[in-house]
Write a structure and sequence with these properties.
Keywords: Signal. The chain is of the alpha+beta class. 58% of the residues lie in helices and 9% in strands.
């Protein structure tokens, strides 16, 4: 997979995956929490505790525990309210929505976001937004590089009823409703045209259903093949491009960049795509656009987020602005001392500057903080450190 080296902000799209994971309502709330402690909590404290407990359940792979935090019945209502349907149609739609999957599906959409690498789910802080107010943030970090940002929406039942994803700049309920509009709610919908006897639309619907089925079966290659059989007008739509990104990320970099190129071509002027297109600009060496995207992300998700600060440090380094790069890495470390990306970026930049004294200090600090096991032998295996291994600083510190 392609990702930002060092800073590694490879955005992993799971917002759409939740559309495929619609499920039945789980009535069990976090049973282990005591009522007394709940009554003493402020709304912000409650949200932060639920976010932390939900993240811990995901980290431990505890599906049963994780699904107890979810109010999917409320999610179904939110989706249904977004649609322009008659009362009878709303009842039928909501019933079908709730019957289409199981509680495990939503949790598994988180756990299987990147099945071939270690994934970490961490509650970071409460984000205050103009549109949504105060919401707890979970950042998903991938061992091989990359991040996803998720806001949790907690209702009066003290359960999670919706999610807002950085890679989509949208709510799960709205994403699902946008998908549903392709089939219901207008004379131009697939379903309406199919019922009128349009054979072409029958084939379109069949391909769409196959695509969803292959995705649920964990076969992104066949899902992507079915997606590419959709009509050209649909392949240009934001929803279908977003799905293409989800599938292509699991296939290869060529197809991933193809889908990002389509997103930029047909929807690049929409602010909601700026976050996802950071990767596209980065890989096309449009570093100014990548930096603007990073700044937009920081304006929403927080100016002190270590992952985003580390991203900016990488961009500055590629612009040959090493002083700014070092400044950003130091801020990342100060903001989140447990985030190792800032330390490794700083080591890279000191090495590029030939500042071997500072390089020695940061490598030793990495050993101290992360028990990394760095030795003279491991350093000697890194080609980029050849000059360092010949320096007096190296000999004095490691030999």
């Amino acid at each position: 997979m392609m990702y930002f080296k060092n800073a590694s902000l490879r955005l992993r799209s799971i917002g759409l995956a939740l559309f495929f994971a619609v499920m039945s309502f789980s009535q069990n709330a976090y049973a282990e929490s005591e009522l007394a402690s709940i009554l003493e909590e402020t709304p912000v404290e409650l949200g932060e505790r639920i976010a932390s407990e939900f993240a811990n359940a995901l980290n431990s792979g505890d599906i049963e525990r994780a699904k107890q935090y979810l109010d999917v019945n409320s999610l179904a209502k939110l989706v249904t309210e977004e649609l322009d349907l008659t009362p009878a149609m709303k009842t039928g739609f909501m019933k079908g929505f709730l019957q289409s999957a199981t509680p495990e599906s939503l949790v598994n959409s988180f756990l299987n976001i990147s099945p071939n690498e270690v994934t970490y789910y961490n509650f970071k802080r409460t984000i205050e937004t103009e549109e949504f107010g105060a919401r707890p943030l979970i950042r998903i970090d991938f061992e091989e590089g990359g991040h996803e940002f998720v806001l949790l929406f907690i209702n009066e039942n003290q359960l999670i009823e919706d999610f807002y994803f950085g890679s989509k700049a949208n709510l799960t309920s709205r994403i699902s409703a946008n998908a549903a509009r392709m089939f219901v709610g207008s004379k131009r919908s697939f379903l309406a045209r199919m019922m009128s006897g349009d054979s072409l639309d029958n084939q379109v619907l069949e391909n769409f259903q196959k695509m969803i089925a292959h995705h649920r079966e964990g076969d992104p290659e066949k899902a992507y093949e079915s997606l590419n059989k959709l009509p050209e007008e649909l392949l240009k739509s934001r929803f279908v491009i977003d799905m293409g990104i989800v599938f292509a990320q699991q296939l290869n970099d060529t197809e991933y960049m193809k889908q990002l190129s389509n997103l930029n071509k047909y929807h690049g002027d929409n602010e909601s795509t700026a976050f996802m297109l950071i990767d596209y600009h980065f890989m096309n060496n449009d570093l100014d656009s990548a930096l603007r995207g990073a700044d937009m992300a920081m304006a929403f998700w927080g100016a002190n987020d270590a992952a985003l600060l580390n991203l900016k440090s990488t961009i500055y380094s590629l612009q040959n602005k090493l002083d700014k790069a070092i400044e950003m890495s130091k801020l990342a470390i100060k903001s989140e001392p447990e985030f190792d990306g800032g330390y490794w970026n700083l080591a890279t930049f000191y090495n590029l500057q030939g500042d071997f004294a500072s390089l020695t200090d940061i490598l030793q600090r990495i050993n101290l903080v992360f028990d990394a096991g760095i030795t003279s032998e491991t350093i000697a295996t890194v080609d980029e450190y050849q000059l360092y291994t010949e320096s007096e600083e190296f000999k004095n510190a490691w030999e």
